[in-house]
Design brief:
The chain has helices spanning 55-63, 70-74, 238-241, 276-281, 295-300, 307-317, 338-341, 470-473, 511-530, 532-546; strands at residues 3-4, 37-39, 42-44, 83-86, 97-107, 131-136, 161-165, 169-175, 185-187, 217-222, 228-233, 247-253, 264-265, 269-270, 284-293, 327-330, 344-346, 351-358, 364-368, 373-378, 381-382, 390-391, 393-396, 401-407, 420-425, 443-447, 458-459. The protein has 547 residues and is an alpha+beta fold. The strands form six sheets. Strands 14, 15, 16, 18, 20, 21, 22 and 24 form an eight-stranded mixed beta sheet that branches. It is globular. The chain starts with a strand and ends with a helix. The relative contact order is 0.14.
């Protein structure tokens, strides 16, 4: 029998006193967003996960914010000039000049107005390290609404994947809305060293250009001639700015007629409007960005509101050579939140294109259960078809990219059959969150036949609800609590962390509980002793009356 991961704790679980587990699928986004649909003429593929992309964002990224209807634009958070598409120079039915405006957003930073981190973004229950990210230019509030400190969905790690077409004229405008200087380096992308104005175009302050100072803007010009999967990142203090989140993928698509590509993929994950070249060979496409967090580095941003203090602590006192990575992310989340956004939902006999980026500081070794995928590209360069390797471990050095063909044909080699097959880093720390397992970048390839109501995977293993609690990630819940009816490997003191119920009779009270119980017993004894004669008289009268 299958078990729904959103089920309540095990039948033998003992009552608890902490908050109940979060729902597997929070009701944050309309269910209709998951469906395939057409908006302003843009075909948008289905996305069968709990937290799908806003399909109106997808329409805006495909057509450009200057070409969609006002009702569609109003259903996004995008500024009217966020993505401009114009000038079909070659007459093939799609625009050839693309202007992309990016800002720099800070998440989970310090604020003089509240002790809570703002703008809030959780990578797992209760875990909110600070981030800096490139983000599409937005309008209105940075939060979900006027009553929330949670970041709106466009402001999040990883920095969005940028998609353009081979041969198009691309202008990437960095509007530096942050308190530190930044630049953009187009890593692996075909671009000139200087632009048409003779200004530096490589994003390196020491050799190519000056800093983009807070409040200033800089335009980077490219006309890429070669297709492939590349990256972009800040090149100011790269040893910290990349780790803080200022890195994302750039995908240059092969030129095709009437090829309106999805210019931005916020949060990575499924590409809901693949290019024509991808559709010629594949049924689906996914962007997979792996990142890691050093608590010490990311905590610096939460330690002060003064940019000078942050700069001193980050640039002069922090030592990367002594650093360790503590949190491991896939598309901006750690397990179990990866299961809400980064599932690969597939059907039999499909070919799936995966673009994978290692944005961590150490080696990544991604292992796919139940499947062996084929490497088609390294760092944006196609592998000779006769030299392609099919395997189930994919090693990526920092900043490296691979393109994979994942085949779901059940032939015993490429695929072993339908199910819920996890994929994860086989450098084992990558499947932990601050040392707690399971955590990190674990996600799964899920066949649609294994999706239950609400698109929740029907797992056949243990109940997952405990992982959707802050208590688990705070090390307050033993990983084998209530593993059997007699809780043979559990911790009695941890039972109060699992639900919101009072402890069972006979369970030991907390030190404060024992103090108040003792005080009440003492007061009762004092009252009885002080009125012992009156109590004796009342007792004797009661006995005489009964007799």
């Amino acid at each position: 029998m299958t078990a729904d991961v959103s089920s309540m704790p095990d039948a033998h679980a003992k009552p608890a006193q902490a908050a109940a587990p979060e729902p597997f699928c929070p009701p944050e986004r309309p269910v209709q967003w998951r469906d395939a649909q057409k908006i302003d003429g843009v075909e948008i593929e289905e996305e069968r996960v709990c937290l799908p992309d806003n399909p109106y964002d997808i329409a805006a990224f495909v057509k450009g914010t200057n070409n969609i209807s006002m009702p569609t634009l109003m259903k996004t958070r995008l500024a009217a000039d966020s993505v401009i598409k114009r000038n079909d120079r070659d007459g093939d039915g799609d625009p050839d000049e693309i202007i992309i405006k990016l800002e720099v957003a800070e998440l989970n930073g310090a604020s003089p107005d509240t002790t809570e981190p703002v703008h809030s973004f959780a990578i797992a229950p209760g875990i909110k390290p600070a981030f800096w990210v490139f983000a599409p230019k937005v309008r209105g509030m940075a939060t979900k609404d006027a009553h929330s400190i949670e970041a709106n969905p466009l402001l999040r790690p990883p920095s969005p994947t940028i998609r353009v077409e081979q041969g198009d004229t691309i202008k990437i405008v960095l509007e530096n809305t942050h308190y530190f200087p930044h630049t953009i380096h187009l890593h692996g992308v075909d671009h000139p060293y200087v632009d048409a104005k003779g200004e530096g175009n490589d994003g390196v302050p020491q050799t190519s250009e000056g800093f983009v100072i807070p409040g200033q803007a800089r335009t980077y010009d490219i006309t890429p001639r070669q297709p492939g999967t590349f990256i972009y990142h800040c090149h100011v203090q790269t040893h910290t700015h990349l780790a803080m989140g200022l890195i994302g993928m750039v995908v240059v698509e092969e030129n095709r007629p009437d090829n309106w590509v999805q210019t931005l993929n916020v949060g990575a994950g499924k590409v809901r409007h693949p290019s024509k070249a991808v559709r010629e060979e594949y049924d689906q496409e996914y962007d997979l960005v792996y990142q890691a967090v050093d608590k010490e580095l990311h905590g610096i941003v939460q330690s002060s509101n003064d940019p000078r203090v942050i700069a001193k602590r980050m640039n002069r006192e922090y030592d990367l050579t002594d650093a360790t990575e503590d949190y491991f992310l896939l598309n901006g989340r750690s397990f179990p939140y990866t299961l809400r956004e980064s599932l690969l939902v597939v059907e039999p006999d499909q070919n799936i294109k995966l673009r994978m980026l290692n944005a961590q500081g150490e080696l990544l070794a991604v292992h796919t259960h139940g499947h062996k995928a084929t490497i088609t590209h390294y760092d944006g360069v196609a592998v000779n078809p006769q030299a392609r390797i099919t395997r189930d471990i994919f090693d990526l050095a920092p900043a490296q990219r691979v393109d994979l063909r994942l085949t779901t044909t059940d032939d015993g080699l490429h695929n072993y059959g339908q199910g819920i097959w996890v994929f994860h880093d086989h450098v084992e720390r990558g499947i932990t969150t601050d040392g707690m397992n399971p955590g990190g970048n674990i996600s799964a390839i899920v066949y649609k036949s294994y999706l239950g109501p609400g698109d929740v995977p029907k797992v056949q293993g243990v109940d997952l609800s405990r992982y959707f609690t802050e208590a688990f990630h705070q090390r307050k819940l033993p990983v084998w609590q209530n593993i059997d009816a007699w809780d043979s490997l559990g911790d009695p003191e941890a039972r109060s962390q699992e639900t919101a119920q009072p402890p069972e009779a006979g369970e030991e009270a907390s030190p404060w509980g024992r103090f108040w119980i003792g005080l009440l017993i003492g007061l009762l004894a004092y009252v009885l002793f002080s009125n012992r004669e009156r109590a004796r008289e009342l007792f004797c009268r009661y006995v005489l009356e009964k007799s």
